[in-house]
Amino acid sequence: MKTPKLVAELTEAEAKGELARLARVIxxxxxxxxxxxxxKLFDFEYxxxxxxxxxxxxxxPDLVRADSPSHRVGAKPSEKFAKVAHRIAMxxxxxxxxxxxxxxxxxxxxxxLGLADDAQLAFVAEPKIDGLSASLRYEDGVFVLGxxxxxxxxxxxITANLRTLKDVPLRIDGAPQVLEVRGEVYMSHADFSALNxxxxxxxGKIFANPRNAAAGSxxxxxxxxxxxxxxxxxxxxxxxxxxxxxxxHWGMLQAFKRYGFSVNPEIRRCRSAAELIAFFRAIGEKxxxxxxxxxxxxxxxxxxxxxxxxxxxxxxxxxxxxxxxxAEQAETVVEAIDIQVGRTGKLTPxxxxxxxxxxxxxxxxxxxxxxxxxxxKDVRIKxxxxxxxxxxxxxxxxxxxxxxxxxxxxxxVFPRVCPFCGCHAVREEGEVDWRCSGGLVxxxxxxxxxxxxxxxxxxDIEGLGENIVGLFYKRGLLKEPADIFRLKDHPxxxxxxxxxxxxxxxxxxxxxxxxxxxxxIRDDKRTFKEMDNxxxxxxxxxxxxxxxxxxxxxxxxxxxxxAKLMARQFHSLAVLEASMASDHAISDLTAIEGIGETxxxxxxEFFVEPRNREAMDRLVAQVTVLDVAAPAASSSPVAGKIVVxxxxxxxxxxxxxxARAEALGAKVASSVxxxxxxxxxxxxxxxxxxxxxxxxxxxxxxxxxLKLIDGDFAGTSS
Length: 718
Ligand code: IVH
Description:
By secondary structure, the protein is an alpha+beta fold. It has five domains: 7-71 and 327-404, CATH 2.40.50.140; 93-324, 2-Layer Sandwich (D-amino Acid Aminotransferase, Chain A, domain 1); 442-539, DNA polymerase, domain 1 (Orthogonal Bundle), CATH 1.10.150; 543-626, DNA polymerase, domain 1 (Orthogonal Bundle), CATH 1.10.150.20; 642-708, BRCT domain (Rossmann fold). The strands form seven sheets. Strands 14, 15, 16, 17, 18, 19 and 20 form a seven-stranded antiparallel beta sheet that branches. A hairpin with a 6-residue loop joins strand 17 (384-389) and strand 18. The site of 2-(butylsulfanyl)adenosine has 14 residues, from strand 3, strand 8 and strand 13.
């Protein structure tokens, strides 16, 4: 990587480019940290980026960007959206539920306009998208303001978020001077499932349906989150418009298309109530294939003059109506209530239903969400219930039919232990979910936990990927972290797993390329080599700093930073465990700046569970846990020094070298300056080495560095 130029030496043009780069890199890091829960930068690297950004902004205040990271504290909501008054109110629609309602809608229009029964009337029929309406204002062809509907009179300014939608053009050609395009923001079924999968993997919020997901994604104070969520927009209405580009609704939609908006491809012109109803039926049949949720169709009078004449009743136009699909509901019996345990330990109750056909789909499970939801609806085993299926979403229980409840029924008691591992379940204050506390031993979570355990910022064991961990688990070789260090005792099985994984990979390749691999994959030299590498990678991690161990445990809420804070406070595992066994565990934890009540509770819950403690003991018997020195230990020769690593290090990774130096109180910088105290140069060091010489900074090689710090980082077996 090129050494970044000193802020003091940047030209204005360079500063501008650099601010743009930093805005992007920091936004990505925020998203990785907050949204994906998967930080890719060390905290100090992230802090350095922010500091550099602030320093450049201080030198060039005129260059501060609208999306500057300094306007944002992480991605945490810190302020509300500004309010926006709609110049023309955003109205809602009247509803029609039956064919008669549709005929009545047409009849009312004829009567209002004084038209004969056989006079021609033109309508546009459109799918009714189940999303959130938004209004986009363009001035001189530039997107200047985007707002939610709000109460119809006043919405919220979500311009920055709407800008991130591919369907929202930022600039349009040939549009009237003022143009407000209105329509629906929505999420496709595919994007919805992908989002929930990502959320699940990251232990984040799972959305109940695409509409909620779209709402949650749109109302983010950090637009980079919205950007990552693939929202779409269909234009179907307008607010203030300078020179109208058309005199029919259909013509307006065609103009929107020319401006670059997406207009729903299913829209049709119709000439009678019968045609409207036929459209409704046709869309109803296509509904499941559209790829996004709709909850009905909307009929609108095409001629804009007629629309003006028809006007409004209360808050809805007389010239339009929404023909809603009936909710797809059916009655059945709850045969059991099962508790599923997710990869993050969440206990989810699921109603096992007597199988029933709901609107063409067989349903035998319905989610009950959580304990409160069961209590609120008072759902019990053997109850007869109304089940509803909306769109692609998991079926829901709408209500219990109490008249059909058997006399001997009893309220459902939510379990207090995990049905998979028997560990106690915890429900945090203010949370609705119960979670299994058996992080290290629960079979429902273990594979996920092990993958975290060996990941880069934890034990960092190369070669133990997701698939391999899964295969070891299936063979009963990996049931808890300590087992990783016992793999060496089962070389035949390890080889078999590596072989199986290679066969799987080759099958994948065959599927992708359509080409058959000629040579059969055998238990050959290559497998031996792979096994050697894997076992060596494991052996290399038998010594582990306390903070990495703590992060690896996968305790809820405990990220890399908190693990470091804990390690610095307690120094050794023995001290930490003693505190956790005491009755002042919580106060010891909350005394650490950066650790709050919720996290402290979670940490304490983890150590309270005897099964976790036993698993810890088995792990610690396999590894040596390095104590973490107090920060800026005055005894260390590098405490308070600014150190730069350059070139390739052979005895440790760059990340490890930095972490060690920091643990000894050194500050690790990425570029050499007059202030640098020490440059550690590995093989192939280049410009930084030259700079160090130029500034007269002390330079040493890796071995000299290790000698210097040796003894300051003595491992103590806990
Ligand atoms: S027209 C004055 N067209 O339905 C008429 N609305 O129930 C404004 N919606 O708030 C609305 N698809 O969020 C219209 N093709 C469509 C629609 C649509 C979905 C939503 C919109 C509106 C709600 C009214």
